[in-house]
Amino acid sequence: MNNRFPYLLLVIFALLTCWSAIHPYDIQVWWTEMSIALLLVAVLVLTFRKFRFSNTAYGILAFWCYMQVIGAHYTFELVPFDFVTNLFGFKRNHYDRVAHFVVGMGGIAIAELLWRCKLVNGVKTAAVFSVIFILAIAGFWELVEWIYAEIDGGSAGQAFLGSQGDEWDAHKDMVQDTLGGILAAIIFYCQNRGQQAML
Length: 199
Hints:
The chain is mostly helical. It is 73% helix and 0% strand.
C-alpha cells in the first residue's frame, strides 16, 4: 500500500474546501453539505493509525468528499454538469445521481471494516452486509433530506433536498446508492476472494 496516497487525498480535500468556501451560492447550504464531508474526513483522520482502509476505499471515499465539496459550493442542482446533461439529452442535472452512486461505492470501506475486524466470517458475507448497510444509509439519508426541507421551509431546504421537481427523486437516489453498493461489493469480493475466510 502506498502510505502517501491518503495524505495526497487529504491535501486535495483541503484545497477544494478552501476553494468551495469562497463565495458559495448559499452559505447555509454550504455549511450543511460541508458538515457531512468534514465529519467523514475527521473520522478517517482520527482512526488512521488504528485502522487503515485500502487505497481503493480511501480513493472512493475521497472522490465522494470532493463531489460533496463541489456540490456545497454550487448546490447539487446548480453544479456545472451541462456536458453530461447535453450528451445524454437529460432534462435535469444528474450530478447528484452520480454522487449517490459514489456514496454506494463507499460500501467497499464498510466491507473491509466488517471483514478485517472479524465482525463477519468471510469475504462473501462482508460483501453482502456492506450492500445491506448502504441500503440502510440510503433510506436514512432521504429521511434526513425530507426533514431538513420541512424544517427549513425555504430555498435552502429545497436546495438541500435537490429533487428538481422529480417526485420520484428519493427513490431514484436510493437506486443509485444501491447500484454503487453492489458494484463496490463485487470489487471487494474479487479483490479478496482468494484469501482465507477470517473466522
